[in-house]
Design brief:
Radius of gyration: 20 Å
Order of helices and strands: EHEEEHHHHHHEHHHEHHEEEEEEH
Helix content: 25-40%
Low-confidence stretches: 224-233
Strand content: 15-25%
C-alpha cells in the first residue's frame, strides 16, 4: 500500500490492507478521506492491469453508478445560478420530452427516480446503442412512463444518465464530460481524475477490470433467471443490456457518455468534491454549492404526485432495488458498517465503488477499484471503509 494517512485515521488503512489480503481479493483500489476539509487518507494498493502493473497515484477506475452523484452535483451547481429549477417540467428545457404523457415530469422526478422511466431494455438492444447519445435521447423522449409517475421510486440504473444529462446539455450546451470539467474539476482544482466518456488522452490512466468475465456472465444469467419473477423483473429491465458485460471489460465502454455508469475517477477527486459539500467553510472562495441549495438537495425526498407536488409520506421501498434508498436529489443515503448517517448523502456503484459526504461529522469518503463483484449495488467494501472512517472521526472529535 502506498500514499498517506493521518495517524488518527490509521484504522481506515488497516481496513484497506485487510480487504486486499482477503482470500478473494484481486486487482487494486484507492481510498481517500477528508475530515473538516483536511485530507487525512490518500492511499492506493494492488494492481491496475491484468499484466500486474501497480496501481499508481493518478490511476482512475470505472465507477459505474457512483457517477450519478457527480452528475447530481453538476445539477445543483446549475440550480444555484438559476439555470435549472427542480420543480418545473423537464420539457421546459427539453421540449421533445413532453411526448407520450410526460409533459408534467419534473427534474425532481428524475433526480428521485420517480419518473417511471427506468426500463432501458425497451429502449436499447445493445451497448453500442447506449453509447449513441442522440439515439438514447430520442428513444427516451418518445417513450411513455412504465407506470404512473410519482407513485413510487424505481431506480433509473442506466436511464438516469441520459435523462438528467440531456437537461444539463440543453441548458449548458456542453457534453457531460465538458460540464464535469467546468463545474467540478476546474473550480475545485482537481488533478484531472474525473471524466465520463473518457477521452483517449487519459485512457492509459484507467485501471482495467480485474474480474473474471465468466464470473460476471454468471451474474448476468442469474439476473436473467430472476427476471421471470415479478419482484425482480423491474431490476432486470433497469440494469441489463445483453452485451454490456463484454463491453465493460474493454476500452470501448469509454467511447461515449453513459452518465449513470461509465464515469472514471480517482478516489482523491471524488473525496474532494464531496468534502467541498460536507465542509464548505474549509475551502476558499464562494461555497461550491450554496447552503440553501445544498440543504434542499440533500433532504430525504417525499413521494411526489404526477404533477410534481408532495403527495404525502416518504418514497419508501424502491420498486426496482427492493429496499429504501433514502433518496435525496440525485444522491441516496450514506450507509456504513457504523450505521446510516442521518445527514449523509452520496452514491455507490456496481462493483463496490462509492463516495459520500456527511456535514454532521465533516467526513467525505471515496473508494474506487477495478474488482467488479458483489451485487448490482456493490458489496461490503465501501460499507467497511466508511465505517472505519466514521469511528475514527468520532474518536478524533471526542
Amino acid at each position: 500500500m502506498e500514499g498517506f494517512v493521518h495517524p488518527d485515521f490509521a484504522p481506515v488503512t488497516e481496513k484497506v490492507q485487510s480487504i486486499m489480503a482477503g482470500r478473494r481479493a484481486s486487482g487494486g483500489m484507492a481510498v481517500a478521506v477528508y475530515h473538516h476539509g483536511e485530507l487525512v487518507v490518500d492511499v492506493w494498493a494492488g494492481v491496475r492491469s491484468v499484466g500486474g502493473d501497480p496501481w499508481e497515484r493518478d490511476t482512475m477506475a470505472t465507477s459505474f453508478s457512483t457517477t450519478k452523484g457527480v452528475v447530481a452535483t453538476i445539477v445543483h451547481r446549475l440550480a444555484d445560478r438559476g439555470l435549472l429549477d427542480y420543480d418545473v417540467p423537464v420539457a421546459t428545457y427539453w421540449p421533445e420530452f413532453a411526448d407520450a404523457g410526460k409533459e408534467q415530469i419534473t427534474l425532481r422526478h428524475l433526480l428521485t427516480h420517480q419518473s417511471a422511466m427506468h426500463d432501458v431494455r425497451r429502449l436499447a438492444d445493445s451497448t453500442a446503442q447506449l453509447l449513441d447519445w442522440d439515439y438514447m435521447v430520442e428513444q427516451l423522449a418518445a417513450a411513455p412512463p412504465v407506470w404512473e409517475v410519482g407513485v413510487r421510486s424505481g431506480y433509473h440504473a442506466l436511464t438516469y444518465g441520459w435523462l438528467v444529462g440531456e437537461v444539463i446539455r440543453r441548458v449548458t450546451g456542453l457534453t457531460i464530460d465538458q460540464a464535469f470539467q467546468r463545474e467540478v474539476v476546474e473550480p475545485l482544482g482537481l488533478d484531472g481524475g474525473m471524466h465520463v466518456g473518457a477521452p483517449e488522452s487519459v485512457r492509459d490512466r484507467i485501471a482495467s477490470p480485474a474480474t473474471n468475465v465468466k464470473k460476471l456472465d454468471r451474474l448476468f444469467h442469474l439476473s436473467s433467471w430472476l427476471s421471470r419473477f415479478d419482484s425482480f423483473g423491474p431490476l432486470y429491465d433497469a440494469m441489463v443490456v445483453e452485451d454490456y458485460i463484454d463491453y465493460s471489460m474493454t476500452p470501448r465502454i469509454h467511447d461515449g457518455e453513459i452518465p449513470a455508469a461509465n464515469g472514471v475517477f480517482t478516489a482523491r477527486s471524488l473525496a474532494r468534491m464531496y468534502a467541498a459539500l460536507a465542509s464548505p467553510a474549509a475551502f476558499d472562495g464562494e461555497p461550491f454549492v450554496s447552503a440553501p441549495t445544498l440543504a434542499a438537495a440533500t433532504m430525504v425526498q417525499p413521494r411526489l404526485g404526477a404533477d410534481g407536488r408532495h403527495s404525502g409520506g416518504r418514497v419508501g421501498r424502491d420498486a426496482v432495488i427492493g429496499f429504501e434508498m433514502r433518496w435525496r436529489l440525485g444522491y441516496h443515503g450514506a450507509f456504513t458498517s457504523a450505521g446510516i448517517l442521518p445527514r449523509g448523502f452520496g452514491h455507490f456503484g456496481f462493483g463496490g465503488s462509492g463516495a459520500w459526504a456527511d456535514p454532521e461529522s465533516g467526513l467525505a469518503v471515496a473508494m474506487v477499484l477495478n474488482q467488479i463483484g458483489g451485487s448490482p449495488f456493490g458489496d461490503t467494501k465501501m460499507l467497511r471503509i466508511g465505517g472505519a472512517a466514521v469511528r475514527a472521526a468520532r474518536r478524533r472529535s471526542a
